[in-house]
Write a structure and sequence with these properties.
The chain has helices spanning 2-20, 28-45, 66-75, 81-94, 98-111, 116-129, 136-148, 154-165, 169-181, 190-203. By secondary structure, the chain is mainly α.
C-alpha cells in the first residue's frame, strides 16, 4: 500500500512539473531519472512497510503527589487568585504534563509577582518537572516566596521537602527544624512536620554536634 501511494505521488509530481512548471521536453528523461533515484534511495534506507510507532511521553503522572496539594492548602491560600492558577496547574501535573504546569505558573507569577502562594506552587512544579530534584530555578522560587512573606510556612516546608527528595537530608532537617520551632502548637501542619522529622531521624539520624567538628 505504501509503494502505491509513493508511486501515485511521483506521477503527480512529474505531471505538475510538466504541465504547471512547463518542464522542457528535453529534460523529461533527466527529471524522471532523478525521481527514480530518490525512490531507490528510499527503498534502500527506509521502511515503507513498517507500522508507525507511538512515543510514550517521558513525563509520568506518578511523579506528582496529591499529598503535597493537601499540605500546600494547609499552609497557603485556599481561595482567591492563587487558587485559580494552582488548581489548573495541578490538573496538568496529574495528566503528566509537568513542563506545561511549570510554564503555566511562570505566567502566573508574571501577572502576580507578589503572591507567595504562586511562587511556592512554581517551586513545587519545577521540582516535579525535574523528577523530584531541586534545581536553582526551584530554589529561587521558594526564596522569592520567603522574601515576600517571611512568616509563610510554605516556602521552608516545600524547600525542605525538595531537599529531602534530592537526598540532601541535612539541609532538609535544618530547614524543617527551624520551621517547627516557629510553628504554633495548633498549626494544622505541625503534626505532619513532626512526623516527617521523626521518620527522617529513624532512617538517617543526625550526628551529635561534637562529631560534626573536624578533628584537629
Amino acid at each position: 500500500m505504501g509503494w502505491l501511494i509513493l508511486l501515485g505521488f511521483l506521477l503527480l509530481l512529474f505531471g505538475s512539473l510538466v504541465w504547471l512548471g512547463k518542464l522542457p521536453r528535453g529534460t523529461f528523461e533527466l527529471t524522471g531519472a532523478a525521481l527514480l533515484f530518490a525512490v531507490a534511495g528510499y527503498a534502500w534506507q527506509g521502511h515503507p512497510g513498517m507500522a508507525g510507532v507511538s512515543v510514550e511521553p517521558k513525563e509520568k503522572p506518578e511523579s506528582f503527589d496529591d499529598k503535597n496539594i493537601e499540605a500546600r492548602n494547609e499552609m497557603g491560600e485556599r481561595f482567591g487568585t492563587a487558587r485559580e492558577w494552582l488548581v489548573f496547574s495541578d490538573a496538568l501535573n496529574r495528566s503528566g504534563k509537568h513542563g506545561a504546569a511549570a510554564n503555566y505558573l511562570r505566567n502566573g507569577v508574571k501577572e502576580h509577582p507578589n503572591d507567595p502562594d504562586l511562587w511556592v506552587g512554581l517551586g513545587n512544579a519545577l521540582v516535579v518537572h525535574a523528577d523530584g530534584i531541586i534545581t536553582p530555578a526551584a530554589q529561587f522560587a521558594f526564596q522569592r516566596a520567603a522574601n515576600i512573606s517571611p512568616e509563610h510556612p510554605g516556602p521552608p516546608f516545600f524547600l525542605g521537602l525538595a531537599y529531602a527528595q534530592s537526598g540532601k537530608i541535612d539541609q532538609a532537617r535544618a530547614i524543617w527544624t527551624e520551621l517547627l520551632k516557629r510553628s504554633p502548637d495548633d498549626a494544622p501542619w505541625r503534626k505532619d512536620l513532626e512526623s516527617r522529622l521523626a521518620s527522617m531521624e529513624k532512617t538517617q539520624p543526625s550526628l551529635p554536634a561534637s562529631e560534626n567538628i573536624d578533628d584537629k
